[in-house]
Specification:
- It is a single chain.
- The protein has 425 residues and is α+β, with helices and mostly antiparallel strands.
- The protein has four domains: 92 residues, Rossmann fold (3-Layer(aba) Sandwich); 66 residues, 2-Layer Sandwich (Dna Ligase, domain 1), CATH 3.30.1490; 128 residues, ATP-grasp fold, B domain (D-amino Acid Aminotransferase, Chain A, domain 1, 2-Layer Sandwich); 97 residues, Alpha-Beta Complex (Glycinamide Ribonucleotide Synthetase, Chain A, domain 4).
- 31% of the residues lie in helices and 26% in strands.
- It contains 14 helices and 22 strands.
- The strands form six sheets. A five-stranded parallel beta sheet has the order 3-2-1-4-5. Strands 12-15-18-22-19 form a five-stranded antiparallel beta sheet.
- α7 packs antiparallel against α8.
- The protein starts with a strand and ends with a helix.
Length: 425
């Protein structure tokens, strides 16, 4: 079987690593891949959002299964183009991908079908949005409607900062068309949790829960990032709450789309706040999270390729998942200046030493190979993932491995999973 994985981040490295373990996979490709992925797959010099070039490659190489990692090609309709030509693809079509591509569409879907979520108002006018700020209490939550590379959300107590966020989107057009519409949303109190499920559009197969850390600095300080670390399982989520997540949120929204004539095939990500009134949706994604994939996939013992094919072929209801009881913690190593401006091309040292730490994997996010050396090529550079019998053990291994790696300007949070590890002791 020949498989193509679209994307070049840590999420895609985790997918490639697990898919490569299927004995029926004899050719594995990635586009564009990175310096870590190229150790397990043949990397193509094709951008993840170059739909035409990707379709041409699938046709030429007669790929058996295409796995789409990032959201942009899904929102752009890559899955539709491949399915129209009779190729198997794991990932939703353009219509279903709107659940991430348009926060307003996702919000309307939730409200129409009783999926619990935060109250919100949609604006296209800057003066109207600013006037609405006077009607609500801080903290203010401002969200660009479309895809903004993880930078379209502002949560602030400061009214002036909220007004600046609205101006950036609606007046300065900092996010282009993605910011032409803006949601001003109710602030929810509680703990955040990431829930993932595979679906063939009808049946839903829950995966394990995870929690990620979005702020750049320790103690959840500083600006939002794409994610600075994660862990799984999430010990403070009891069985009753977990059932509400899967039944009241994930299964309900998949069936809601089906009722509306929209088939969602792939992995559905629900970002949730566990409030006093139960789980409520913060956002949906139409793909695996990053860095959550780097703690969920290492815990999976089922064959990932088989599960993806079951989604594509519409028989997911025949499958169950098997998980290791071990915990997993991942630490993201970032370039100096990230999530702001940063330089690339810094040589990375210590990768072999990090991989020698027991039960540790080093997933590449923003790397490339130049002249035989692995160098930085992005803001988030590596995700160091370790397994352990407890979160505390997994965390200790991950930080031990992270300490073996170095590159100019490297920084990472020192408090990933710290609180849950302390509470468990």
């Amino acid at each position: 079987m020949k498989i193509l994985v679209i994307g070049g981040g840590g999420r895609e490295h985790a997918l490639v690593w697990r898919l490569a373990q299927n004995p029926t996979v004899d050719r594995l490709f990635a586009a564009p891949g990175n310096a870590g992925i190229e150790e397990e797959a043949h990397c193509l010099p094709v951008a993840a959002d170059d739909v035409r070039a990707l379709v041409e490659f699938v046709e030429t190489e007669d790929i058996d299964l295409t796995v789409v990692g990032p959201e942009a090609p899904l929102v752009a309709g890559l899955a539709d183009e491949l399915m129209a030509r009779g190729f198997r693809v794991f990932g939703p079509g353009r219509e279903a991908a709107r659940i991430e591509g348009s926060k307003a569409w996702a919000k309307e879907l939730c409200e129409n079908h009783g999926v619990p979520t935060a109250r919100s108002r949609l604006f296209t006018s800057f003066p109207d949005a600013v006037e609405y700020l006077d009607e609500i209490e801080p903290p203010f939550v401002i969200k660009a409607d479309g895809l903004a590379a993880g930078k379209g959300v502002t949560v602030t107590e400061d009214r002036a900062a909220a007004e600046d966020a609205l101006r950036a989107a609606l007046v300065d057009r900092a996010f282009g068309e993605a910011g032409d519409r803006v949601l001003v949303e109710e602030y929810l109190e509680g703990q955040e949790v990431s829930a993932f499920a595979l679906t063939d559009g009808r049946d839903v197969l829950p995966l394990v829960l995870a929690q990620d850390f979005k702020r750049v600095g320790d103690g959840n300080r500083g600006p939002n990032t794409g994610g600075m670390g994660a862990y799984s399982p999430v010990p403070f989520v009891d069985d009753v709450t977990a059932r509400r997540i899967w039944i009241d949120v994930v299964e309900r929204v998949v069936r809601a789309m089906d009722v509306d004539g929209v088939r969602f095939l792939g992995v559905l990500y629900a970002g949730l706040m566990l409030t006093a009134d139960g789980p409520k949706v913060l956002e949906f994604n139409c793909r695996f999270g990053d860095p959550e994939a780097q703690v969920v996939i290492p815990r999976l013992r089922s064959d990932l390729a088989e599960l993806f094919l079951a989604c594509v072929e519409g028989n997911l209801g025949l499958y169950k998942t098997i998980w290791t009881p071990d915990a997993c913690v991942t630490i993201v190593l970032a370039s100096g200046g990230y999530p702001g401006e940063y330089e690339t091309g810094m040589q990375i040292r210590g990768l072999d030493a990090a991989r020698e730490v027991d039960q540790t994997l080093v997933f590449h996010s923003g790397t490339e190979r130049r002249g035989g050396r692995v160098v930085t090529a992005g803001g988030r550079v590596l995700a160091v993932s370790s397994l352990g019998a407890t979160i505390s053990e997994a965390r200790a291994r991950a930080y031990d491995a992270a300490s073996q790696i170095s590159f100019q300007g490297m920084h990472y949070r020192k408090d990933i999973a710290e609180r849950v590890a302390e509470e468990a002791t």
